[in-house]
Amino acid sequence: MNLNKIKLGIYATYITNRFGFRFTNKSLSNEDKKKMRIDYATQMLNKLNIDVVTQGQEKIPMDGNYMLVCNHRSVIDPLIVELALQKSNIYGLWVAKKELYNSFFFGKFTRNAGTILLDREAKQMGGFFKDVKDALSKDQSIFIFPEGTRNKSKDPISQFKSGSQLIAIKNRIDIIPVYIDNQANEVLKEAVNNSKIKREIVVKIGDIIPYKESKQLESKYKESFGLA
């Protein structure tokens, strides 16, 4: 492990837990949390010397309740999405796995920064869908990686899980498709090894997908970005 990796590891641990503690403030509004998440993402990506370039910015609604779906290749994908949406008033809760809730590194941040727990080992999913409905009633959107886990294959995306379709149909919410065009995980690895070089990650925003078309979500998503 080189010196740059050690420094970045220490910095990331410190700032993630510092923000995680700040998020425990129960009086924070959606707007407050959005600003703090953007601040966190900005500081982390600036430290890595990574710029986020958003294509199709005009397609992002300024307000409203939506389900945002995005491909998933790296641990910094949520940060990339937060910066892509920073000019919008949309504030979303990330669907997060139980492993992240219990993580030493991400646990406090994940539990407090605005998430909905998805426990795949649970026998019943009623609690999860209730949390989704409650979030939408509070003017919060839902942000999800429909692949379910990071895609480590050579394919642009892996197969979508059915949960994202159910969320859209059950709650009648339209879908914002987002595609991180670069191999974000490779960019991250390069930045960790040498953060002196400026790097860029491109994010593409697709046209809104009506919830009535969510049964074909994966194919519609692919069409949005020419992946079909």
Low-confidence stretches: none
**What is the spatial order of strands in the main beta sheet?**
1-7-6-2-5-3-4
Estimate the mean pLDDT confidence. Answer: 92
Question: How many domains in all?
Answer: 1
- Main sheet specs: 7 strands, mixed
Please give the number of β-strands: 7
Could you list some keywords that capture this structure?
seven-stranded mixed sheet, 228 residues, 42% helix, globular, alpha/beta, Glycerol-3-phosphate (1)-acyltransferase
Could you outline the blueprint of secondary structure elements for this entry?
Blueprint: H1 3-22, H2 30-48, E1 50-55, E2 67-70, H3 77-84, E3 92-97, H4 98-101, H5 107-112, E4 115-118, H6 126-137, E5 141-144, H7 163-171, E6 175-180, H8 184-193, E7 199-205, H9 217-224
Parallel strand pairs: 1-7, 2-5, 2-6, 3-4, 3-5
Antiparallel strand pairs: 6-7
Q: What does this entry show, briefly?
A:
With 228 residues, the protein is of the alpha/beta class. It is 42% helix and 16% strand.
Description:
- The chain is 42% helix and 16% strand.
- 35% of the residues are buried.
- It has helices spanning 3-22, 30-48, 77-84, 98-101, 107-112, 126-137, 163-171, 184-193, 217-224, and strands spanning 50-55, 67-70, 92-97, 115-118, 141-144, 175-180, 199-205.
- Helix 2 packs across helix 3.
- With 228 residues, the chain is α/β, with parallel strands linked by helices.
- The protein has a single domain, classed as Glycerol-3-phosphate (1)-acyltransferase (3-Layer(aba) Sandwich), CATH 3.40.1130.10.
- The chain is globular, with a radius of gyration of 17 Å.
- The chain is built from nine helices and seven strands, in the order H-H-E-E-H-E-H-H-E-H-E-H-E-H-E-H.
